[in-house]
Amino acid sequence: MSLNIKNPRVHELAREAARLTGKSQTGVIEEALVRLLAEYGVDPAEAERRRRIDMATAISLRWQERPRVPGEEDRILDDWDLYDPETGLPA
What we know:
By secondary structure, this protein is mostly helical. The chain contains three helices and no strands. The chain has a domain at about 10-40. The protein starts with 7 loop residues before the first helix and ends in a 26-residue tail after the last helix. Helix content is about 55%, strand content about 0%. It has helices spanning about 10-20, 25-40, 45-65.
């Protein structure tokens, strides 16, 4: 990921904020963006938690919908249970 700030004023503001706070320029920009999002009612940490929960839910649903093999145990016993034994690819 990359962010190249070409606006001289913004670049100088970031540099000055970093100097005053002792943080890196990236750190002060991150703090400013988190505060801005909070003013608009967005919690970046909550958004990340929600993204992870959604990802785990999708994985769980795919696991529940997979074809069942009669006589095969219906649970994950170790890491290798997550892979297709024939291809070695994720199941």
